[in-house]
Amino acid sequence: MSKKREKLLLDISKTKEKIIELQEKLHELEQQRTELENTEIVALVRSTKMNTSELSAFLKAYRENNDTSFFNQKQEEINHEEN
Questions:
Q1: Residues 6+ apart with CB under 8 A from 50
Q2: pLDDT tens-digit profile of 21-74?
Q3: What are the distances in angstroms from CA 31 to CA 20, 25, 26, 64?
Q4: Largest CA distance in the chain
Q5: Cα(80)–Cα(63) distance, rounded to whole angstroms?
């Protein structure tokens, strides 16, 4: 086997290993992001001081009304604060 071919095969192998490592790191980072988002959601829910049945009723009513005006207004406020 030629030296160039051996070097190329070695580079391919190293690159595949790096890809695997980076995919694993990406997976770990995505899990951390999900955990942080879940923690933030739990904190927000707890700050409402609703019990589980009240929260369930609120979410059910929201889904039925499909009212996004509150969230659109909050997003506009956030965008305004950022500018």
A1: 58
A2: 999 999 999 999 999 999 999 999 889 888 888 888 888 888 888 766 666 665
A3: 17, 10, 9, 31
A4: 73
A5: 27
